[in-house]
Amino acid sequence: APTLGILGGGQLAQMLALAALPLGVRTVVLEPDPQAPARLCAEHLQAPYTDPASLDRLAGCDAVTLEFENVPVAALAALEGRVPVRPGGHLLARSKHRAREKEALRAAGVATAPFVAIESGADLAGALDAVGGRGLLKTSELGYDGKGQVRVNSDAEVRAAWDSLGRVPCVLEGLIPFRREVSLAVARSAAGEVAFGPLVENTHRAGILRTSVFPAAAPEGTEARAREAARAVAEAWGLEGLLTLEFFQLPGGELLVNEVAPRVHNSGHLTQDGGGLSQFEAQVRAVLGLPLTDWAPLHPTAMVNIVGPADGQEPDWTGIDTLPGTRRHLYHKAPRPGRKLGHVNLVAPDPETLHARLARLEALIP
Ligand code: ATP
Ligand code: MG
Ligand code: MG
To answer: Global pTM?
Structure first.
């Protein structure tokens, strides 16, 4: 049976492994955390990402992919040339570093928010003016779920934020008055064939994704623009495998790329239950060179994240399980405030029913 290696063993690896199995594909995950979600449904190599024996095991797989971008580039370098690594280390090196990523997006001809790369204190002078006077200072590395970012409205706040973030390399971005946030995944085969996922609309709460909805309520032409940007990035970056773009949509309809994830994305989880191919199967197919065409839910679908609350309050599972069209997906993680513990997908026959049920579902999830 074909075997797929996965760097990282979190919930994305769990769901990749669950999607691979019915295709006759086994998975092996390299993940140092003994409690990582994927341990329950994949072979778990519990070791540092650079462990030579574990990398030898992955090199014996048919292909290697990743579910987590903060894998050391050295781990990918140790695999390249021995096994197809998709996406490759050159792409990972960009997408794990905000400043390099934004520069590479611009080089691909794709619009981003105005930004200034901050490498040292000297770069702070005039930076806020250059991005429009209001912004977000974000660490270039390791940020997720809005961690490592500070809103800034004055030069003094920029300096204080840089100090509070530890004076590490950052990006100062202009604050974008977006109308909505959308995302779209693209897959590209080694032969250069491109396929797209659905356009999904996202809302955030406290910097963390709260809901995703398909179809997005975006104006005519938005999906075509998003696909054009995704194709440009996939081709310019030499993608093999799958990546997801997050966009801001401006009031005039223009799309700016916020960031790129070199993998399946939280906003694509709704594809598990919409009746079409899931993003997880799409990544498995793209990475192993199995046939893949555009994928999207066949029905209106939404997702709500379950995020660990400060008071340890559980969602109302009985209410959720008896609401028509819901399915839970739990990650077997110890609850902690602000930690993603699972999600609930919701499917409905038409958008009106979806939105009515989504309001009820959201009321059941603290
Ligand atoms: P994740 O990787 O979990 O998506 P992250 O920590 O990398 O999150 P971003 O995606 O950069 O963070 O930002 C999180 C959210 O904060 C965005 O989806 C958006 O809602 C808001 N945000 C980020 N940058 C800007 C900006 N320049 N202008 C306005 N809002 C922003
Ligand atoms: Mg991010
Ligand atoms: Mg983001």
So the answer is: 0.96
